[in-house]
Amino acid sequence: MRVGNKFLAGALVAMLAALALRGAAADETQTYPSRPVRIIVPFPAGGPTDILMRVIGQRMSVDWGQPVVIENQPGANTAIAAARVAKMPADGHTLLAVMDVTMVLNPITSKSLAYDPLKDFAPITLASKNTSLLSVRTEDGPKTVKELIARAKANPGKLNYGAGIITTRLAGYLFNREAGLDVQYIPFNGSAPTVQGLLTGAVDYIVDGTATSLPDVKPLAVEAAIPALDDISTWIGLVAPAGTPRGIVDKVQREVATMYADPATVDKLEKSGISPESGTPEEFDAFVRKELNRWGQVFRDSGIKLN
């Protein structure tokens, strides 16, 4: 009986401790945020990710009654900021704006990375998704993808394509492979130089997600005949350090979803070339895992060697 009493006493203590922890977590969720929130943007100010996070942060600040500060920390293809946030306290007061580069391309192309995209972060929501399209010059470019393919096959090895980041380079590789094209790749450092290369004639076509609003650039819709090219996009999302209470994750996710239900907010973002899109933490997690599998295979097949 004494052993039984000790066991019951121990079980009671454990149960009370669990209830206390659950109560503390509930209180933390209800009072969140209890101080200013930082959103770390791994790019300089002024780019799409920065613009999107400033719109989101401003709305959060108004709704929550706490300052939401955007902190820019560029470097190492977003890896410096990601590694830093991965070690932050898991209390929701530091969030990270991530991209396809952060969560997918860095892990599959880097041999040594200071963070794990699946283990070190709690996914919150997808925030933006911009389709990457094949684009040509409006003046003298082909009118359709079929015409582009025909032109390239009639001139093997003579056409050039450009891309500014590994995401769009892999998309270009995938298009060329699926279409059976022999073309030359011309590297650029970012989206703006890539578009400039197209306009000056340095390349015949590009893969890019931001060039389609320019009058001298014509986007080409990829026909369903190349299913491997479905849903190629650059995207932005929000994560928190792993272990952040689910109630806090859900509160941030609901805030973004509510914001995107406002037509004025959506219009403001779309005029900046940003296509807002949100989802649940589970949907975002599944999306990242799918992209990791997809692009990991494409990268291995491509044989691309990066410095």
Report the principal-axis shape. elongated
Q: Radius of gyration, rounded?
A: 23 Å
Task: Name the poorly predicted regions.
Answer: none
Q: pLDDT average, as an integer?
A: 87
Q: For the largest sheet, list the strands in their spatial order.
A: 2-1-3-10-4
SSE class: alpha/beta
Proportion in helices: 40-55%
Q: Nutshell version of this structure?
A:
The protein has 307 residues and is α/β, with parallel strands linked by helices. The chain has 10 helices and 10 strands. 47% of the residues lie in helices and 19% in strands.
Give a quick set of tags describing it.
10 helices, 307 residues, 5-stranded mixed sheet, 47% helix, alpha/beta
Secondary structure blueprint with pairings:
Layout: H1 2-31, E1 37-41, H2 48-64, E2 68-72, H3 79-86, E3 94-99, H4 100-109, E4 121-131, E5 133-137, H5 145-154, E6 160-163, H6 166-179, E7 184-187, H7 191-199, E8 205-208, E9 217-220, E10 233-241, H8 246-260, H9 263-271, H10 281-302
Parallel strand pairs: 1-2, 1-3, 6-7, 6-8
Antiparallel strand pairs: 3-10, 4-10, 5-8, 5-9
Structure explained in plain terms:
There is one protein chain. By secondary structure, the protein is of the alpha/beta class. 47% of the residues lie in helices and 19% in strands. It has ten helices and ten strands. It has helices spanning 2-31, 48-64, 79-86, 100-109, 145-154, 166-179, 191-199, 246-260, 263-271, 281-302; strands at residues 37-41, 68-72, 94-99, 121-131, 133-137, 160-163, 184-187, 205-208, 217-220, 233-241.
